[in-house]
Amino acid sequence: MSRKKPAKGKAGSSTPTASPNSKESCRSAKGAAASGQTNGVIHPSRPSLSNSGEFYDLAFKVMLVGDSGVGKTCLLVRFKDGAFLAGSFISTVGIDFRNKVLSIDGVKVKLQIWDTAGQERFRSVTHAYYRDAHALLLLYDVANKASFDNIQAWLTEVHEFAQKDVVLMLLGNKADAAHERVVKREEGEKLARDFGVPFMETSAKSGLNVELAFTAVAKELKYRVLKEPSEKFQLQEYVNKEMKGVGCCRT
Ligand SMILES: Nc1nc2c(ncn2[C@@H]2O[C@H](COP(=O)(O)OP(=O)(O)OP(=O)(O)O)[C@@H](O)[C@H]2O)c(=O)[nH]1
Ligand SMILES: [Mg+2]
């Protein structure tokens, strides 16, 4: 069985060169060493080796998008390192990525997760990356109404620049911030229903639903590539079954 080791470095030739952060409040950018050589899906009969030394069967690109300050970088750091490093907010510059290999129903799925800058001045940089994304996590901040109101504009952008069959999920982040909350969960649910996208609330601070958001996307992507005739997977159904509410648990 052939096993290839992707070259180290920045994004592969099919994607523009990344512009790494030097520092962030969530320190996510540190390193970002893994390769972006594989633009498409890797065939499962040829396992590959990630930079962290883990073999994987499938690889996908996931992009985090949304207004500046909604918590994209913190969400990625929480997922990758299980940490929330509170401190002064240092906005992401350009774009960066980190890899994580998940085991999904016995299949090793590598997610290459791109953390984009929410600031308007970096918009043209992020546009260039949409086309290669297999999945997009679109975030707003439940404590910031403007970030919620801007979701429609983000969706317009997604439809303009991303692949038609991209896997989309809407996340209402900072669900821990009860006192500052200005967007009700029901409002997020309605918006998601109106646009036909799966939805859940998350918290990079508490970790609420963070693992689930990425796992659900990985499951959907894996299902699309490897689906058995007997297998059925529905992303929103899975999310509804698995997600935890704020301060309570759904069964
Ligand atoms: N309470 C709370 N604060 C959060 C959460 N996630 C992020 N924050 C805070 O929100 C601020 C912005 O977080 P970032 O993750 O840097 O935001 P971003 O979306 O990456 O912003 P840009 O890089 O400018 O696009 C930081 O001060 C974080 O500490 C969360 O789940 N709960
Ligand atoms: Mg950021």
From TrEMBL:
InterPro entries found in the cross-reference section:
P-loop_NTPase, Small_GTP-bd, Small_GTPase
Question: Which EC number(s) does UniProt give?
Answer: 3.6.5.2
Record region (Disordered): 1-46
**Bias (Polar residues) ranges:** 12-23
Which cofactors are reported in the record for this sequence? Answer: Mg(2+)
What Pfam families would the database entry show?
Ras (PF00071)
Q: Which key words tag this protein in UniProt?
A: GTP-binding, Hydrolase, Lipoprotein, Magnesium, Metal-binding, Nucleotide-binding, Prenylation, Protein transport, Transport
- What does the record give as the reaction this protein catalyses? GTP + H2O = GDP + phosphate + H(+)
Please list the GO biological process terms of this entry. protein transport
Gene3D superfamilies xref list: P-loop containing nucleotide triphosphate hydrolases
Q: Which GO terms describe its molecular function?
A: G protein activity; GTP binding; metal ion binding
Identify which top EC class this enzyme belongs to. Answer: hydrolase
User: Signal peptide position in this chain?
Assistant: none
Q: Tell me the protein family, please.
A: Belongs to the small GTPase superfamily. Rab family.
Q: What is this protein called?
A: small monomeric GTPase
> To which species is this protein native?
Clupea harengus (Atlantic herring)
Q: Which gene encodes it?
A: LOC105896463
